[in-house]
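[audit] Reproducing an earlier prediction to check determinism. Same input, same settings, fresh worker. If the tokens differ from the archived copy the diff job will pick it up downstream; this log only records the rerun itself.
[audit] input (240 residues):
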Amino acid sequence: MNEKTIVIIPTYNELKNLQSMIPLINQMYPSLDILIVDDNSPDGTGKFVESLSVKDKRIKLIEREKKMGLGTAYVEGFKYALSNGYQYIIQMDADFSHDPKEIKKMLEYIKNYDLVIGSRYISGVNVVNWPMVRLLLSYFANIYTRIVTSLPIMDCTGGFKCFRREVLSSINLDNIHSNGYSFQIEMNFLAWKKNFRIKEFPIIFVDRTEGNSKMSKKIVWEAIFMVWKLRLKSIFGKLN
């Protein structure tokens, strides 16, 4: 693949996962760069990535002062990617819930689309090892989002995606302050409203086996209010 591509992975205490994830991506996709955006993990995630980056120029690190959240981590990563000339920007989790093997399909689809989403719900429910409560919360959150916003995406809250740089360049990233679920919804909504071509393809989402989930009630409530905020902004022509 000739287009300059980077994989952005936000982290907080993901040392064990990255010890496996980074070598695997490097082996499978030797032409891809990897950017870790770490929120000053006390488990040494940042130091581990820094040591790798000294030996391998494909590995990049943004070390932040404190835990600042998923959305702001991605925004910093996106800004880095845009300022360093990357054409395709992939975002994914560090915990193997997103299978690196699916990056190959993503890079094929992005040739003909502007935003490609690895979807848990485009062909049924493809989620493994989640507690039923969390699965139902996620599934109905997506239905709720589609009803309120009319967003034509089955998995509005998924975090395994690939953007063309044109999508991110068209969005004022300084105005993006959401986190978690609501960050994913907001980015998808803005891409859709700007008439970019969006493709969902089915993936199997497997819950993490190492580390702890970052889910919280705050993230859920933020998403509930975000969909109405986006709808109202759209109605009054005040979108990003």
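[audit] rerun output stored. Observation attached for the diff report: The chain is about 45% helix and 15% strand.
[audit] end
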